[in-house]
Amino acid sequence: RQYAGVDPQTGKALYYKDVLNSEGNPTGERTTTTSTDQATKYYSGSAIPDMTGDINSSISYKGFRFSFMFTYGIGGKMLNYTYANLMHSGDYGTHWHANIKDRWQEPGDQTDVPRLENGYDDANYPSDRFLIDRSYLNIKNVRLSYNVPPKLLKQVGLDLVKKFQVYVSGNDLYLFSEMQGMNPQESFGGVTNYQYTPTKTIMVGTNIKF
Asked: Distances from the Cα of 113 to the Cαs of 7, 51, 172, in angstroms?
């Protein structure tokens, strides 16, 4: 179904439907309806991204080594059920997304958020209103390490140590995505439901080899 906005007089959600001829075939024209049962389903894009992959590299210089990996996806659509569930029309005891403040409230209001009415299921029915671009760029890993020269190890009395490395590393540092707080990487099925952004971790440590 494709969303057509909100009726400014009633605050009800509008959906597109085909105008049919006497034989029941589409005429090529469209009108709107407040009933999702009457709305026509249209092709609205694919969940499959055009491209996915990663970019990685490493640089070494005088004992220092810097490496990174970015993962990315380009194209594809995703139905953001998480956002849709937060834009409900008035389920008792359930919190809302901040965008609900833009809801229709009185005749003449121009908005794309329907009125609040408990039990009004057509208000946020799955449609292209909740389709988003699933493109993303994730800073998957960044690492900086330093191998202490063997000569220096001997000077400080660490003759038995063959390798002494110190490092700092970060995983999932930031996810650039239209889905604020959610993770578009998890599914090729085109639906997300409370799949949160990966936890950012930063590690500092040493590797010692005798």
From this structure: 10, 33, 34
Average pLDDT score, the chain: 91
Angstrom CA distances, 15 to 47, 116, 119, 189, 205, stand at: 22, 17, 18, 24, 56
Of 84, 108, 106, which Cα lies nearest the Cα of 94?
84
Cα separation, 82 vs 67, in Å, equals: 35
- Average the pLDDT over 181-197 and give the result: 78
Q: Residue 95 contacts by C-beta under 8 Å, 6 or more apart in sequence?
A: 86
Cα gap 97→104, rounded to integer Å: 15
Q: What is the pTM of this model?
A: 0.81
Under 8 Å between Cβ of 102 and 183: no
Amino acid at position 135, single letter:
S
Q: What is residue 75's DSSP assignment?
A: S
- In this prediction, residue 120 has a pLDDT band, given cuts at 50, 70 and 90, of very high
Query: Is beta strand 191-192 parallel, antiparallel or unpaired with respect to 77-80?
Result: parallel
Who contacts 96 (Cβ-Cβ below 8 Å, separation ≥6)?
A: 86, 87, 88
Q: For residue 109, give Cα distances in angstroms to 106, 131, 144, 166.
A: 6, 24, 55, 61
- Give the type of residue at 165: Q
